[in-house]
Design goal:
five-stranded antiparallel β-sheet, about 375 residues, CoiA_nuc, Trna Endonuclease, Chain: A, domain 1, CoiA-like_N, about 35% helix, Competence protein CoiA family protein
Length: about 375
């Protein structure tokens, strides 16, 4: 921790202002703490015994600098901000607590790894007690072509910039915005990047920006997905092999799957595996159904079952519901386009077409896309 209480004083003292000859105490557990400083660690206070749950100790320079920057940016906007202000009702100490006009905003700057359970617990604790919460992440969580659960759980959504992440680079003291993040089958993530000098510049950009992401895929891009998937079948991949075996056991050729299994749009960034796999299982189940009709709620239950079996999704606590709705809407739209489902009326009831065409190989499907 970088703040402690000096003996006989109520105000918190920053570790950089440490004075010898005084005793210092943890403002959380009230136990005496010691001062530490070194070439690889920022000056900080540490407990003699690791029994306190209020503070983190031995912070990196990046984390300390980041918190100070966030506080400075808030104060430039004439907002009162405090670092490591203890919240007794939830026994948590946010990195920065900012007082807004009608609410309080918690800003967490996460540089180190964090488990999904810890993330959810901390976020839920703040929300349940009326605090707004915003996560900024460090460079170790920087996006690449593939998403991880460590990155996915921080993803949020805004109508002007789509799915996004905000990074703070303590070295350059700037904010990095990854926005309009989406997922394309077999090609991974697509997103835009912008760098800002401070938080005010980010907020102005978000306010003024108008989303111009192109979500629809061309027929050439869809054919490219088929080509790449066909190549992947020649390499050993246990997950893909399981999907191929699943089709074979049901007397279908995996690469012969119907075109409705290909998503014709770029999808929300919630995928661990390609969208194709759970869609194929849905088609196989629809084919063997004896009923001639199905409701929207019934087909969504079917979607959920196969999405769970194929372990398709990451957990995105802020946008799970929105992301999965967009995924389900896109799939139903494809099933209607290729007349696997035929709308009966305006109450979201559908007639099932049991004669679903499977191709003998991928080449035939590519011909249809040209």
């Amino acid at each position: 921790m970088i703040y402690a209480k000096m003996e006989h004083h109520e105000e918190l003292v920053c570790a950089t202002d440490f004075k010898r000859g005084y005793n210092y105490f943890c403002p959380g557990c009230k136990e005496r703490v010691t001062f530490k400083n070194g070439p690889h660690k920022q000056a900080h206070f540490a407990h003699y015994k690791k029994t306190c749950h209020y503070f983190s100790e031995g912070e990196t320079d990046a984390h300390v600098i980041g918190k100070k920057l966030i506080k400075l940016w808030a104060e430039k906007r004439h907002k009162q901000a405090k670092i490591e202000e203890y919240l007794p009702e939830i026994k948590q100490r946010p990195d920065v607590l900012i007082n807004l006009r009608n609410s309080q905003l918690v800003v967490e700057y996460q540089c180190s790894p964090l488990s999904l359970d810890s993330f959810c617990k901390r976020t839920k604790g703040y929300k349940e007690h009326g605090y707004r919460i915003f996560w900024i992440i460090g460079k170790r969580h920087m996006l690449g072509q593939r998403l991880t659960q460590q990155q996915a759980m921080f993803i949020n959504f805004h109508k002007n910039i789509g799915y996004f992440l905000v990074y703070l680079d303590a070295e350059t003291q700037c904010l990095i915005l990854k926005y309009e993040i989406c997922f394309e089958n077999l090609y991974g993530l697509r997103y835009r990047t912008r760098i800002f000098a401070d938080a005010t510049a980010v907020m102005l950009f978000v306010k003024m920006n108008s989303r111009n992401e192109v979500l629809a895929l061309t027929r050439v891009e869809l054919a490219g997905q088929l080509t790449k998937l066909e190549k992947n079948c020649h390499y050993f991949n246990r997950y893909l092999k399981n999907q191929i075996d699943y089709c074979y056991e049901r007397r279908q050729l995996f690469m012969g799957f119907p075109l409705c299994c290909l998503s014709e749009v770029r999808l929300p960034p919630i995928y661990q595996h390609e969208d194709i796999f759970w869609r194929i299982r849905v088609i196989l189940e629809l084919q063997k159904m004896t009923a001639n009709s199905i409701t929207r709620s019934e087909i969504e239950v079917m979607f959920m079952k196969h999405q769970k079996i194929t372990k398709n999704f990451f957990e995105l606590p802020f946008v799970n519901r929105l992301g999965r709705k967009q995924v389900n809407d896109a799939c139903i739209k494809s099933l209607i386009k290729y007349r696997v489902l035929i709308p009966i009326d305006t109450t979201e009831n559908y007639q099932i077409c049991h004669k679903i065409e499977w191709a003998n190989d991928a080449a035939l499907k590519k011909e249809k896309l040209r």
